[in-house]
UniProtKB/TrEMBL annotation:
Xref: SMART domains: WD40
Lineage, highest ranks first: Bacteria, Pseudomonadati, Pseudomonadota, Gammaproteobacteria, Alteromonadales
Keyword ATP-binding tagged: no
InterPro entries: WD40/YVTN_repeat-like_dom_sf (IPR015943), WD40_repeat_dom_sf (IPR036322), WD40_rpt (IPR001680)
Cited Gene3D superfamilies: YVTN repeat-like/Quinoprotein amine dehydrogenase (2.130.10.10)
WD repeats: 155-196
SUPFAM superfamilies in the record: WD40 repeat-like
Protein name: WD40 repeat domain-containing protein
Record keywords: WD repeat
């Protein structure tokens, strides 16, 4: 009996599992800022990073470790807390949560500006086809913006703040997470709610697969679920006992088999969608004099390589390998 107890205790200490959790050191590390970043994004192929420290916006070539052109400064660059690079690198956008600026990535030229009026923008996403933007507002409303036609449609999928938004690759479906304790899956063209997912507390983070088949939703306390969107069925959850998980960014990838997540606590993690198993865990660079470094953005830039950028302006890449729990 004592032997079994000892073995059980050892398993608790070393986290016995049916698979090994992969990890590694970064294979590239580049430092882009000596200030704390408020927002950052990496292009899907890892070629560019964009950073904002609330005073300037810089577009970096990750291959050459140089700026593509002079950083944007002045009023357009102040208090920028949301930004992104489009799938095919045609655009980048920035927002101070009241206005949204759209730029031509190749030249840095300003294309257009949208204003939120009395609303405050909590999150923004752009479709992979680079035709549609979605803004999620503190009012519970969401706006669908046609980039080509410069038209805006506004709907009210929630009663309270929208905290997180995700849009399908073709821009036809949207997933939103709200402080009203629900995530909503809806049509971009009409605002029609297709599915509603209830949670125990406010939903802080959502992400949807490019084909709008699978989603992940995370609330403020304990619910961290995977869903089949078309039928509204929950099929797995993260295999973690840690309370109050937070993610700054995430992507569903590899034919909807993997979830990659970026944490405020220096962590990037790889999860298996079908059962929520943790497959990999890496620690981003942190300066010795800082308590922690927040991973702001994560991308799978190659089938075997992850890229991240932190609040300290450190761009890193990480090797990964396919692992599947039996």
């Amino acid at each position: 009996m004592r032997i079994y107890l000892v073995l059980f205790s050892l398993c608790l200490i070393v986290s016995c599992s049916e698979h090994n959790i992969q990890t590694s050191l970064a294979n590239k590390q580049q430092h882009y800022s000596d200030k704390v970043l408020k927002a950052a994004d990496i292009s899907d192929d890892g070629h560019y990073s964009i950073t904002s420290d609330n005073q300037q916006i810089c577009l970096w070539n990750n291959e050459t470790n140089t700026k593509k052109y002079d950083c944007l400064q002045g009023l357009e660059a102040q208090l920028i807390e949301l930004l992104g690079i489009s799938k095919n690198k045609r655009y980048f956008y920035t927002s101070n949560r009241v206005n949204v600026h759209l730029y031509d990535l190749a030249s840095g030229r300003l294309i257009t500006v949208w204003t939120a009026g009395d609303n405050i923008i909590n999150d923004i996403a752009m479709s992979d086809d680079e035709r549609t933007l979605v803004f999620g507002f503190r009012s519970g409303q969401a706006s669908i913006v046609s980039i080509e036609n410069n038209t805006i449609k506004t709907y009210t999928p929630h009663r309270l703040d929208i905290n997180s938004v995700s849009i399908s690759a073709d821009g036809t479906k949207v997933l939103t997470g709200s402080s009203d304790k629900t995530a909503a899956f809806w049509q971009a063209s009409t605002g029609k709610i297709l599915q509603t997912f209830s949670h125990a507390s406010r939903v802080n983070h959502v992400v949807m697969s490019a084909d709008a088949k699978v989603a992940f939703t995370l609330d403020a306390i304990k619910d961290r679920w995977f869903w089949l969107l078309r039928i509204g069925k929950k099929f797995s959850e993260l295999a973690s006992n840690i309370k109050f998980i937070e993610f700054n960014d995430s992507i569903i990838t590899h034919n909807n088999q993997w979830l990659l997540t970026a944490s405020p606590k220096q962590l990037l993690q790889l999860w298996q969608v079908k059962d929520g198993a943790l497959l990999g865990e890496w620690h981003a660079f942190k300066y010795k004099d800082k308590y922690r470094s927040s991973v702001l953005n994560i991308k799978l830039i190659k089938p075997t390589e992850i890229a991240t950028i932190t609040s300290d302006g450190v761009y890193e890449t990480w090797p990964i390998k396919a692992i599947e729990k039996p």
